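Recall that a protein's primary structure is simply its ordered list of amino acids. Everything else, from secondary elements to tertiary packing, is in principle encoded there. The following example makes that idea concrete.
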Amino acid sequence: MKTVSKKIVEKELSETLKAVGFAFSGGTATYEIDNDFLGWMGFNMGNHPEFIRLNVSVGVHCIPVMMAFARGFGIKYRKGGAATYSVPLNSIVTERYEYVISDEINLAEVINKLVQTLVFEAKPFMEHVASYSYLENKIFSLIHQYGGNPELYALVLQHSGKSSQFESFAKSWLEECKLEQVDEWEKFIFSVGK
């Protein structure tokens, strides 16, 4: 039986992340890489009867792209609220580890192990992917997969100064859109093209 709550885990995680320079809020942590990019970490806490499992994703939040994305969909922008691109932490580390907390005894140990992994393995990864060219290649390869995001790809092109490629992609994607998606795509492209 677990003897630790999700709230206690979040508090310990927040304090430990802040001690190493990461801002933590609403299940995500960020740090500034440069004027355009934040390192981004997302924490999904599985609250099981016997334990709490932390599933962590790491990547980047590209500020200009995500601001335009929010504007394009008419939603409020929250700096660092969502990743522009992310992968599961265990896909980039040298040693896979299950971040499972069952009591206050192993709480600090698990959180410290996680934060060390974030600092020494995830941070270099995030800084490596913090470029428009990296995002362009990765996001384009995901477009035709479930959850692919042509809007993000178009915005990466636009904000990396590739306006002719942005316009070309916007037109070609319009041709691929299903009838019910045409108006939505045109509205999105118009609102971000201002």
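Residues 104-129 form the longest helix (26 residues). The chain has seven helices and six strands.
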